[in-house]
């Protein structure tokens, strides 16, 4: 049991993460102070939440490139609503962004399920549409800090048991995902659909609907993150989180989620997001040229993919022992 | 919709012609903007009216298309030529497309200058830049230095490492660092004009340089993100965020105290100066490279070899005037 854990992706990633922290500590000891590590965790929280949603999608052999645009659209709607009607309570805004995000995600799901369009094409299309819609509703204008209410901005920063609400959102999402993946039929259906779609159908799983559910889930989490993002940075404009979808996919890949579907774990996705988050936060501190920063982030992804390809190569299974000996 | 727009435009033109006929001896200066209904340009028109009041015998025709297209502006220019205005001061939607129409205007004796967004050299007699790279470079370090009587460490949070404007401004700033003894630029980091990356870079700066006194961000996304990062770190009062930003976007940071002051052009001064320059040309001054034109209370402007000139230092915004400007642009 222990040796199996030590060989697992999670254990290796944890080791790499600790080694990375040790390496950073040599150049910038203040980085590994507990207070700062909490900051890094908080900064990585949006990435963790989105990576979990993305993991569900990728495990079903799909990909969701529209998460960042979905996030930006829901964030803009939340910010504009707050600017127009500062009295709307935060709980209503939270509910609204989750429902809106889920609705946007379900568009992806429906197109993949009912029209059988490849997910990468569908989400590339909706990504552009969502960004366009933000421009239409905002007319290209920013929603600025002074237009947002104090409560709106305070929510992700509020401290509970020493950690900000933003971090708690990520922790709760990870906990809910653990339950979903290991304890519910839907969670198992995600893996069955991606692992072997034909066998899944024979097992009575509606693969299209499972993919639809994954997209909707990813959309709902993107919506939630949209509000958290906008209130944390206290600004909303068309281009927020632009390019973030690639970070999200990268976090999944680093976390050992197989792009071919069927393989992935909650721990892996969380650790992948933490790994990327740590690199992003550490590079400015250790004083590395911005050009190298991009190269380093890119290399980390490539190494992880190469590693995945090796780890996932299945050993051929001998099914006729006697025949093998005969030959 | 377009018929309605045209009717309104025609009525407006007719109205100005009637009004124009009443003061036939007035100098009529048309202030042509990128599009009507933009706060920045409405403010410029306010400045133009101020200049007109000061000069006495000037009538301002504030006009522009309803959307930011070159075609719309050409229509407006043609209408102004037909009205025989004395001068056109234009902020162009396209540097080249407007040249033929403006040449036609100059052929008819109309004085033409561009301001804010320029027209190619052949299409105007002078161009008014809100500021110059050297003035901006000096201003951003001055803003930081003004609140650091004892000197100290400052850091720069720029846009991307390859952004031309920002790199020029930072270079210009470095050239004048000798005038600010005791102030040390400890780092230049790049937020790529992304709110999250800029925020993270600002956090990194605060961690790497615990004695940091100011963050200079000559980019509107960076300055807002840095101000938020400073506020979240509880370092308001200890670290001053300054640089270039828009009043509407920075109002929150000024209110919280994360930023004591920042700079950007003042649209009122810009409209005022453009009007003054146009008036000077109408009254017989020569345009073109090397010429000097009068800008009233803003002083004089000397044009360079391309016929371009810089108005003034960027205008400083702080607690005293942010309320007035945050609704303008």
What descriptive keywords fit this protein?
heterodimer; A: 327 residues; mainly alpha; ABC transporter involved in vitamin B12 uptake, BtuC; two-stranded antiparallel sheet; 2 strands; globular; B: 329 residues; alpha/beta; Rossmann fold; 2 domains; 6-stranded parallel β-sheet; 4-stranded parallel β-sheet; 14 strands; 44% helix; 20% strand; elongated
Describe this structure in words.
Chain A is mostly helical and 327 residues long. Chain A is built from 15 helices and two strands. A two-stranded antiparallel ribbon of chain A has the order 1-2. In chain A, helix 3 crosses helix 13. The radius of gyration of chain A is 21 Å and the shape is globular. Chain A starts with a helix and ends with a helix. The mean pLDDT of chain A is 88. With 329 residues, chain B is α/β, with parallel strands linked by helices. Chain B folds into two domains: 2-130 and 267-312, Response regulator (Rossmann fold, 3-Layer(aba) Sandwich), CATH 3.40.50; 133-264, Rossmann fold, CATH 3.40.50. In chain B, strand 3 (87-90), helix 4 (99-107) and strand 4 (111-115) form a beta-alpha-beta unit. The longest helix of chain B has 21 residues, at 2-22. The chains are: A mainly alpha (327), B alpha/beta (329).
What is the secondary structure topology, with strand pairs?
The complex is a heterodimer of chains A (327) and B (329).
Chain A: H1 2-7, H2 9-27, H3 34-59, H4 67-84, H5 90-114, H6 119-138, H7 150-154, E1 159-160, E2 163-164, H8 165-183, H9 185-195, H10 197-202, H11 207-233, H12 244-254, H13 266-285, H14 290-312, H15 321-326
Antiparallel strand pairs in A: 1-2
Chain B: H1 2-22, E1 27-32, H2 39-55, E2 58-63, H3 70-83, E3 87-90, H4 99-107, E4 111-115, E5 126-129, H5 133-146, E6 152-158, H6 164-175, E7 183-190, H7 195-208, E8 212-217, H8 220-232, E9 240-243, H9 247-256, E10 261-264, H10 267-282, E11 292-294, E12 300-302, E13 308-310, E14 315-318, H11 322-325
Parallel strand pairs in B: 1-2, 1-3, 3-4, 4-5, 5-13, 6-7, 6-8, 8-9
Antiparallel strand pairs in B: 10-14, 11-12
